[in-house]
Fold:
Amino acid sequence: MRSSARTVTIFVVLAALAAVPPVAALLGQPFYLDLFRRIMIFAIAALSLNLILGYGGMVSFGHAAYLGIGGYAVGILAHHGIHDGFVQFGAAIVASAAVALVIGAISIRTSGVYFIMITLAFTQMLFYLGISLDEYGGDDGMRLAAHTRFAGLLDLRDPTPFYYFVLVILAGLLYLVHRLVGSRFGIVLRATKSNEARTRAIGFSPYLYKLAAFVIAGAMCGVAGALFVNQTAYLTPAFMSWTRSGEIMFMVILGGMATLIGPVLGAAALLLLEDLLQSWTEHWQIILGPVLVLVVLFAKRGLAGLLPGGRRHE
Amino acid sequence: MNLVLFLEQALNGLQLGVMLFLMAAGLTLVFGIMNLVNLAHGSLYMVGAYLSVALFKLTGSYLLAVPLALVGTLAVGMIVELVALRTLYERDHLDQVLATFGLILFFNELVAILWGRAALYTTLPEWLSGQLELFAGVRYPTYRAAIIAVGLAVAVLLWYVVTRTRLGMLIRAGASNRTMVAALGINIRLLYTVVFGFGAALAGLAGLMAGPIYTVQPGMGEDVLIEVFVVIVIGGIGSIRGALAGALIVGMVDTLGRAFLKPALATIVSPTAAEAAGPALASMLIYLLMAAVLAVRPAGLFPPRG
Structure:
């Protein structure tokens, strides 16, 4: 029963997201289209982090790195006149998987607080690398030369088709994560999280499983980066700033770790809250900061824990 | 290579190293003893810098402003510990990271409300703003020399406190077995608050010394914080000896890399390629160093004993 309730919840959320463009058009508020597309893009990023953080127990504080790599892959190709979506998204996926492979191979050798600090430090390194790339705007960043085009199919310059494109990718990745987590691979990964020594004792090598999950998560977040640069139409090193990593991590916690729908709810809740606070005061972070502390102290199970069938995998 | 230039840059590296050490010492003590990952350590650095600027303006005396700013940062640190961090000691690292991330947002915004988002202009008293003649023909800014002296003095003092005094004995005992220390009748909560306060004051000292060299603005603590993470990962988390070694290595590598990597590259590859790659590589150098150290020794160079 629990699993069917969970499925229903996911379909309700996706249906609600699909209804946003007509409702926004009806209300004459195109702003909502933009906001919810942004929410879905961050949901993809949070979903990918949840794979390693929630299911794999790897507290990566550098997940914005792959948002940046995906963004830079698209931005740099567009800068040189290549606008084809298959090439751009392919490059974004390959590049972020490759970076995740290198960072993961080094960081997963360590654990605990070392892992947190190292993933943070590597992301900061990429941030500085972005700043020193003068040809691609350096510190200031650069405008995206043109939006991604999938020849004959889709141009991401058009707001509504872009919206549904993001929705389809989100739905596809939700299904992918669902299948991954339930597969033999996912079971070993979750076993590693709950007891690494025992997992080793029954004959698995946790390192390779964790690294594979780390690379998959990186590649997924690279897709989010490729979408995000189309959303902002502007590329800056700030894609990779460490506060961005913190935000994505907070979305996962707020929504509920190791739940499928959690990251989507967390991304929606955080971005809507930010939007609300920003409309009240310029100094919205002075409210958001303590809210964050309170959520961590008192609401550990996240939003997904409140929904029917939303309890996490044990 | 010009020897005077090299000496000057090596001293700059030492100066950056001792400042990183002041930050790293507090962070690593708090981690070693309370098992707390405190991202908001950079905020205390910022608080120290802002308090010293404000108090210098208010009192007109640098010698008065510095101790007042240190006491102020110590107080802020203790309040933060009592209000927010105390409940986090028993939590896992993920919770600690997120909650202290929230504190950073709070502090950055608070400072922006009180003093604005623009960088503050800082002044030095005349007796610190001159140059010092080290030996014939070699001059060095008095202020940077003073930072090196203060930093080394604090390092010695810290070594003395931790290894030779009763407080240091309690700190070391608390790090290895907190339940036992509490069972022996020591008020461990008070000890934690005191240690946290002193860690905060060290961060505040680094911040107030950094003010006149770097910029004083909201968020100034975070860039330093991440460099300090590199320092303590290289040195071994929880070890003060490791923090000192890591800080000096990172300070030297970073400073010398920025000064000499580009000209050194130009002798190997073409000057235009060096022009393009030099600054990028220099800014990544300490992170590459960290990766190299971890590849050989995953627990850092001087992991704490026991």
